[in-house]
Amino acid sequence: MHPIAERDATAPEDFAAIRRAGEPVVMRGLARAWPLVEAARQGRAPDWLRSHATSDPVPFMRAPPEVEGRLHYREAVEGRNFSQETAPLAAYLDALEAEAVSERPDALALQGMPASERLPRFAETHRLDILPPRIPPRLWIGNRAKVAIHHDPAENVAVVAAGRRRFTLFPPEAVGDLYMGPFHDTPAGVQVSLVHLTQPDLERYPRFAQALKVGLEAELEPGDALYIPFQWYHHVEALEPVNVLVNYWWDAAPRGLGSASDAMLHGLMSLSTLPPDQRRAWRAMFDHYVFRLDGDPAEHIPEAARGALTSPTPQSLAAMRRALIAALSKD
What's the whole-number average pLDDT of the chain? Predict the structure, then answer.
């Protein structure tokens, strides 16, 4: 395991350089001036959250002590090892503090709560100047829970606001060594690894040892932030009885072009079961035309004759969409 690189970033142009590099980066103290971070330093993070929360209920997860905080599948990838509950945020924080003094606490995790829904002025009072204001913050509040290795279909800046968290990251190319679970049945909405990072079974999952060789790790304290590039795999371990994370997701891909994940799922149907010689041919086509490993595939064609290889316009996108729908309707 290797340490995640650290850089200072206080302005959008600093962060733009980090994004261009396409690698994870820790930004120490980026949110040190946040009111919630200051409250956490004084041991008052739950009180601060209660005083600013609405009374609306929030969904959260609860797992028994024996799972040791690993929110995951049950054995044989059947069902979940946690239950789903709801309560007002203040009541959830009461439960969190009650578990903090228990010898064998339940694992509690409130995940991805849009700040605007339960803490109406949070985005206004907790600005992150490296990002545009249009990107909304989400909160993750819990105790010593462990989020399994997964990836998000977005770029991500994660800020520790209270407690400490350990992040372990793997590049997209490590996917074959991570033993990812199914797409269609997931514990919390995204595909997760079947390997427990904190207690890996290398006899059952031997290739995970290769993933560990390229893994990156960092421990963050209140005010520290981490940039996670698009689709990088990550495991998040909360290390204190009360932890609060604030994250920002966004997707820089152009809108209106369809979903790359939908294209991959269609590829699983239409390409993965082809004979080996046909898969070889289509791989070469995708590398050349889609991933452009050889450069611009249309540079030798007059611009007026490039058709689908030209820069998309609203008209060409509409035409391609109609053609795709018509083709799929015939199957």
Answer: 93
